């Protein structure tokens, strides 16, 4: 799909934020996100954290309201905030080896709506400033979008298909993460859920990459070898003994270096052509100040992940084969 095929998408460079939207962008998000910083540090709370933790609380309220105007979206997102009670930790522990517990955990998650599972050790750099995580392990769950629905983004009052699929995947992540947490607790170990869409202690993309669920794309989101950019994440933290899964390098990063599709498709021009230094790491970065006004006005947008070639089911196998040949040379 291109901009001409979807009348809800303005061409790159033609979009201008509404004055009332810009008035709510009371501080630049790029310094808060650590753009240009050469020393590693923990991320600062930003959009989707509680409004008193960042400067854009009023803008966040507008963004949520705009997404909920789309047909069906209020119900889709409400389901993401519907979850069961957490059960008490069982008095008797499952003393199986970490390898067996990891296998059992993975089987349970995949049988309870998760589409992918990765495990990695907690790193302090995964934890937002002002929060603490005491558990030693992170389990990240991948929830795959329906591509035919996702490619309808952005949504508005006439078409809510795309944003409803976003809400549906977050709801699936809530159900899956809470089910897994209760399973772990039933085995005698502590566990806490960290689903979206509201953010809390855990930054999900860095542990997802470490756990082998994908690579960081030029658009700032995860690219999975199985689902492309059409994937949402949920996490849990636990003290259950586990075995880490390995990072998965399949060529997405190298592909992004020359691909310009998401850059050209981004109405506010927020996706740059080169990596930048962010909190001590040279990586892909999306300009917050350009992205968030359009994100707010366009019901959470999603154009870049829908347009990503890796997200297209008919293209992804060819890309995997092509990049495998390149990486082997």
Give a concise summary.
By secondary structure, the protein is an alpha+beta fold. The chain is built from 13 helices and eight strands. The protein has a four-stranded antiparallel β-sheet.
Structure, explained:
- The protein is an alpha+beta fold and 329 residues long.
- It is 36% helix and 11% strand.
- The chain is globular and about 60 Å long.
Q: Give the low-pLDDT segments.
A: none
Q: Give the overall form.
A: globular
Task: Report how far the terminal alpha carbons are from each other.
Answer: 33 Å
Count of extended strands = 8
Beta-strand proportion? 5-15%
Largest sheet: 4 strands, antiparallel
Number of H/I helices: 13
Name the strands of the widest sheet in spatial order.
1-2-6-3
Q: Determine the structural class based on helices, strands and strand pairing.
A: alpha+beta
Radius of gyration: 19 Å
Proportion of residues in helical segments: 25-40%
- Order of helical and strand elements: HHHHHEEHHEHEEEHHEEHHH
Mean pLDDT reading: 97
Keywords:
single chain, 329 residues, alpha+beta, two-stranded antiparallel ribbon
List the helices and strands and how they pair.
Blueprint: H1 19-23, H2 29-32, H3 57-68, H4 73-78, H5 98-111, E1 116-121, E2 137-144, H6 147-150, H7 161-186, E3 191-194, H8 205-210, E4 215-216, E5 222-223, E6 231-238, H9 252-258, H10 261-265, E7 276-278, E8 281-283, H11 288-297, H12 303-307, H13 316-328
Antiparallel strand pairs: 1-2, 2-6, 3-6, 4-5, 7-8
């Amino acid at each position: 799909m291109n901009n001409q095929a979807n009348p809800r998408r303005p061409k790159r460079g033609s979009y201008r934020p509404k004055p009332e939207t810009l008035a709510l962008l009371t501080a630049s998000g790029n310094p808060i996100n650590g753009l240009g910083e050469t020393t590693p540090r923990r991320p600062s709370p930003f959009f989707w954290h509680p409004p008193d933790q960042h400067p854009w609380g009023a803008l966040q309220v507008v963004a949520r309201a705009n997404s909920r105007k789309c047909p069906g979206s209020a119900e889709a997102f409400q389901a993401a905030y519907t979850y069961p009670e957490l059960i008490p930790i069982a008095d008797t522990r499952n003393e199986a080896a970490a390898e067996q517990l990891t296998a059992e955990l993975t089987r349970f998650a995949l049988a309870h709506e998760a589409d992918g599972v990765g495990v990695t050790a907690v790193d302090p750099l995964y934890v937002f400033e002002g929060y603490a995580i005491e558990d030693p392990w992170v389990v990240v769950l991948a929830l795959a979008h329906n591509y035919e629905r996702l490619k309808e983004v952005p949504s508005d009052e006439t078409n809510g298909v795309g944003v409803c699929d976003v809400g549906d995947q977050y709801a699936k992540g809530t159900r899956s993460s809470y089910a897994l947490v209760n399973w772990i607790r039933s085995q005698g170990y502590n566990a806490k859920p960290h689903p979206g869409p509201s953010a809390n202690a855990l930054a999900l993309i860095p542990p997802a990459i470490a756990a082998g669920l994908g690579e960081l794309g030029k658009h700032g989101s995860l690219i999975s070898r199985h689902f492309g950019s059409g994937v949402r994440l949920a996490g849990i933290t636990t003290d259950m003994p586990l075995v880490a899964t390995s990072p998965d390098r399949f060529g997405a990063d190298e592909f992004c270096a020359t691909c310009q599709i998401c850059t050209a498709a981004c109405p506010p021009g927020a996706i740059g052509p080169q990596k930048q230094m962010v909190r001590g790491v040279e990586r892909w970065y999306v300009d917050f100040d350009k992205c968030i006004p359009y994100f707010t006005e366009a019901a959470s947008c999603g154009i870049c992940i829908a347009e990503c070639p890796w997200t297209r089911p008919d293209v992804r196998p060819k890309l995997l084969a092509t990049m495998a040949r390149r990486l082997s040379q």
